[in-house]
Write a structure and sequence with these properties.
Blueprint (H helix, E strand, L loop, with lengths): L22 E6 L1 H27 L11 H5 L2 H7 L1 H14 L3 H7 L2 H4 L10 E4 L10 E4 L11 E8 L5 E6 L6 E4 L4 E5 L13 H9 L4 H10 L6 E6 L5 E7 L2 E5 L5 E4 L16 H20 L6 H19 L8 H14 L4
Parallel strand pairs: 1-4
Antiparallel strand pairs: 2-3, 2-11, 4-5, 5-6, 6-7, 7-8, 8-9, 9-10
Helix pairs in contact: 1-4, 3-4, 9-10, 10-11
Length: 352
């Protein structure tokens, strides 16, 4: 019998508020990696499932399991494109006693329901001329709702069957935003469009596949051949220092190119393709435009001197701008968490 989450979690202080984001190291065969995630982050995984289920089940109180058949419909896509991803999920189930459907729910949640207010993020990519190290730089803010503030992990995933990954994710998700040893990086931003996408790969599966590619052409081939089922923007950079933003919506996708070696994306549409579909509150759009302009200004001002700690300071500035202009009062990612993430990324990048 499947052991669905029923509302209780193991005792312990693992999910208590902390200024540090835990580093989780996974290696070996895919199913073993899934087990290792549970061994290192069980409490956070269970809390993540609890949060998601409590919210999506409000959509249909008379049938709280309405989502089960939907998440199972994604299995063939995982089996076709990333069977190792599915094996990680199965390993996590074996170790935790959680159901397969629940672990799959975590990794398809963007396609199941928008159960939380949108998280307003800013992403960027700079060519090597911007950095003090002669290497390109990319990254993003990750603004967080209070319900998820303590669920972050930094996941170092060393694969037998592909490149190693270093990503920031919520516990239980087998991909997030970050970098890979193939030289790829992927970050994301919400955009707000009318209409529904009918088919494509889910966000978490798409991000995982992006990080396992070699070039931007490989990524665009994924979009052309299979599509992305979620509305949003992906900012992608490769080992050659080239970057693009891919705005995705009901009519396909649009590619945004860098200008003068710099690419920035926030939460409003940049390409012409979706201008007529944009459906966003005026205050949110204005806040997005302010962040977009300010981040570009700051990055240009520091051209030739950018490095990771300074990048974190830019993140904090854009977050302050967002809060002032959008009037958002909810708790955001703490300064100390961003600093810790920067330190971990610098320490672990060479270990990929």
């Amino acid at each position: 019998m499947r052991n669905f989450y029923s509302g209780s979690i193991k005792s312990g202080n693992e999910i208590m508020t902390s200024n540090q984001i835990p580093l989780v190291h996974l290696e070996g065969k895919a199913r073993e990696r899934g087990k290792q995630l549970i061994q290192q982050a069980y409490q956070k995984v269970v809390q993540h499932i609890k949060n998601i289920r409590e919210n999506i089940e409000k959509k249909c109180p008379s049938n709280p399991w309405w989502w089960r058949d939907i998440v199972l419909s994604f299995v063939p896509l995982f089996e076709k494109h990333a069977p190792h991803f599915l094996e990680e999920i199965r390993g996590a189930c074996e170790e935790s006693g959680l159901s397969f459907e629940e672990m799959l729910l975590i990794n398809t949640r963007d396609e199941i329901a928008n159960f939380l207010p949108e998280e307003d993020c800013s992403s960027f990519a700079c060519e090597k001329e911007f950095t003090g190290t002669s290497h390109p730089l990319s990254g993003q803010t990750k603004d967080t709702n209070p319900i998820s503030a303590d669920l972050y992990i930094i996941m170092r995933l060393v694969q037998d069957e592909g490149p190693s990954l270093l990503v920031l994710a919520y516990a239980g998700e087998f991909c997030g935003m970050g970098i890979s040893s193939s030289g790829m990086s992927v970050y994301g931003n919400s955009i707000f469009l009318s209409g529904t996408i009918k088919k494509g790969l889910g966000n978490y599966l798409m991000r995982r596949l992006i990080l396992e590619q070699e070039t931007l052409d490989d990524v665009l081939r994924l979009y052309r051949n299979y599509g992305n089922l979620s509305t949003g923007n992906m900012l992608v950079a490769d080992k050659n220092g080239e970057s693009i933003s891919i705005e995705n919506g009901p009519d396909g996708f649009a590619v945004i190119q860098p200008e003068n070696g710099l690419l920035v994306h926030t939460n409003h549409v940049l390409g012409e393709k979706f201008k007529n579909r944009e459906n966003v509150d005026a205050v949110i759009k204005w806040a997005s435009i302010i962040r977009y302009r300010r981040l570009k200004e700051l990055l240009m001002k520091e051209k030739g001197r950018l490095y990771a700690p300074k990048r974190c300071r830019f993140f904090l500035i854009t977050k302050i701008i967002q809060q002032v202009f959008a009037g958002i009062q909810q708790k955001k990612t703490e300064t100390a968490q961003l600093q810790q993430l920067s330190q971990n990324l610098q320490r672990d990048y060479c270990m990929l």
